[in-house]
Amino acid sequence: MNGGYLTLLRAAQEEYVVQKSRFLCAAAPCAAEEDALRFLQAQRARYRDATHHCYAYIIGRNAGIMRFSDDGEPSGTAGMPMMEVLRKRQVVDCCVVVTRYFGGILLGAGGLVRAYSHSCAVALNASRVVRMAATVRGMMSVPYALWDKVQYALGRLPVRVAETSFGADVEVTLAVRTQDRDTVETSLTEQTNGMAELLWLSEGFEPWEEPGGISENE
């Protein structure tokens, strides 16, 4: 777990249409199986008149719980393809529900597999895949004479500026992945000749967006 794990930033939904069938592609982060089931039930209740509510979810940082359902689609054409997308992307603690309104044109087994795989990828894109990484938060007080130099350095370091306030000095709160802590501290100390000291405050897991995102061409 030193490298963290992949999950979703937020609940979101997009729509995908193929051969007149509407696929409502929804996904949400879920800390427990109960959260996934509540999300599924909410989608079913919201779209009571839909033809199918297919789903896949993985719970646990080590993927200890994996469930999926075709919900009336031909066996193996919906839930399993969605699960394969989640497994390929190594996303956990999340649930994807694809709600289908049948458009009157049969897609065939291959067409359904492609439609549900793509719908799952669309849902992941909408929810934004992030890496939950061990992160330390720190605060530093920067003299105004050094602020431009520090700003330049921060723009090139693997940090996230959480808050900035301007008083007697510039007070900056930073979020840094634990693995980058020493690099960031050394660089800022060098940039300020030791005049702006970092005070580390707390450590936990925080989301960091994965570069490149998720391809919709699943």
Compact overview of the structure:
This protein has 218 residues and is an alpha+beta fold.
Any chance you could write out the topology, listing elements then pairs?
Blueprint: E1 5-8, E2 12-18, E3 21-29, H1 33-46, E4 52-59, E5 65-69, H2 79-89, E6 94-101, H3 108-127, E7 129-142, H4 144-154, E8 159-166, E9 170-177, H5 181-191, E10 198-209
Antiparallel strand pairs: 1-7, 2-3, 3-6, 4-5, 4-6, 7-9, 7-10, 8-9
Helix pairs in contact: 2-3
Descriptors:
single chain, 218 residues, Ribosomal Protein S5, domain 2, Alpha-Beta Plaits, 2 domains, 10 strands, 31% helix, elongated, disordered C terminus
Number of helices: 5
* The level-1 CATH class of the largest domain: Alpha Beta
Compute the average pLDDT. Answer: 92
End-to-end separation in angstroms reads 27 Å
Q: Find the structural class using helix and strand composition.
A: alpha+beta
Number of domains: 2
CATH topology of the largest domain: Ribosomal Protein S5, domain 2
Uncertain residue ranges: 212-218
Order of helices and strands: EEEHEEHEHEHEEHE
Strand content: 35-45%
Q: Could you say which overall geometry the principal axes of the C-alpha atoms support?
A: elongated
Largest sheet: 5 strands, antiparallel
